Amino acid sequence: MWRENKGFKTENIDLIISINASPYEIGKDKIRKKVAKKNAINSNSELIYLNSVGSQDDLIFDGGSFLMDKLGNIISQQSFFSESNQIINTESPKISKQKINQNKILFDALSLSLKNYADKNNFNSFIIGLSGGIDSALCLAIAAKTFGPKNIQPYYLPTIFSSKESEQDANNLSRNFDIKLRKLNIDSLRKSIITLLDPYFKNLPNDATEENLQSRLRGLLLMAISNKTNALLIATGNKSEYSVGYATLYGDMCGGFALLKDLYKTRVYDLCNWINNNNFNSQGKNMIPCNIISKEPTAELKLNQKDSDSLPPYEILDQILEMLIDENKDLQSIINKGFKKGLVVKIWKMIKNSEFKRYQSAIGPKLTKMALANDRRFPITNKFEI
């Protein structure tokens, strides 16, 4: 992306053409136009911004090319995430009033990223472990919209700790997208493994070890089906969970593509609500059942478990995470904004202590300016503080 011209005032320029391969980030189109406007006004020239379309690994190129007049007004806005050609008469330009919906752009970014990754790596069918929760629901919605329901294979893998509510939500979601939900009850496997390990766990209290067995069994089975059928398993964890380590290595982190890896939980909610406001099933109901969006998040790895047992509300957690990760702020600056010191320090320690998990996570699309893979990496082994 070009830089603002601050050093001199140019003269007698008819047109500035800026040719880019600018990767997508949430809200980046606004930043581009702000920089473009300053250059157009400073140069007293119309400006064309041309951007590539497509994706490569974690990077997404969103297109969205535009023509801007000398005052920084948008004369023509091209589509995002699709190639386009247009002839424009600059002699009698009209200011464009087109509104850009950031949730639609985000959905299209995720869809394009998944499509290009699958196409370029020869996948045409997809596996998703449905929990009845909002993250896997969003992944299914994106995959179904991108590749059609016939190419999506969702699995529900309950144990004794899985609620009837979650199973019903998973069933309703699959039905809305005209997809068959497959069920694999893994509780007998869970019991067998605990029995097998009992001599080695003797006199040790139950903890997250037993809980994580369930997640790892799900990962084992889904990866086996993926291998056998050459279908791409989509990991469904979000950026909030990955940031603080609220994800099981070799469990729910299993998969070939982590679709929501750079999407905070609060944005997951926003995107699901947008989907429901713009898409309805054949009965005129929400595609994503309202109960999936409204119920309290839970991993259901033990009785009556809630995310809030271990984490603050996501509205608070995501604000702190964005400042620590995306804005690279120090702890005191965040505390000064009114967040409790103990909570900020706790979250920071959770981020540091889970770095080893993120090093082993599947690739996923970059959506923010500081993704957890290439943009922001801390050492795992040296004990540093900030």
Explain what you see.
- With 386 residues, the chain is of the alpha/beta class.
- It has 2 domains: 15-100, no CATH class; 106-307, Rossmann fold (3-Layer(aba) Sandwich), CATH 3.40.50.
- 40% of the residues lie in helices and 11% in strands.
- It contains 13 helices and 11 strands.
Layout of SSEs?
Elements: E1 15-20, H1 28-43, E2 46-51, E3 53-56, E4 59-62, E5 66-68, E6 74-77, H2 102-120, E7 126-129, H3 134-147, E8 152-156, H4 164-176, E9 182-183, H5 187-197, H6 208-229, E10 232-235, H7 239-244, E11 257-258, H8 265-278, H9 290-294, H10 314-326, H11 331-335, H12 341-353, H13 355-358
Parallel strand pairs: 1-2, 7-8, 7-10, 8-9, 10-11
Antiparallel strand pairs: 2-5, 3-4, 5-6
Structural class comes to alpha/beta
Please mark out the parts with pLDDT under 50 across 5 or more consecutive residues, or reply none: none
The largest β sheet comes out as: 5 strands, parallel
The radius of gyration over CA amounts to 23 Å
Percentage of residues in helical conformation: 40-55%
Q: Which CATH class of the largest domain applies here? A: Alpha Beta
Query: How many distinct folded domains?
Result: 2
User: Could you give me the name of the CATH homologous superfamily of the largest domain?
Assistant: HUPs
Number of helices: 13
Secondary-structure element series: EHEEEEEHEHEHEHHEHEHHHHHH
Strand content: 5-15%
Biggest sheet: strand arrangement: 9-8-7-10-11
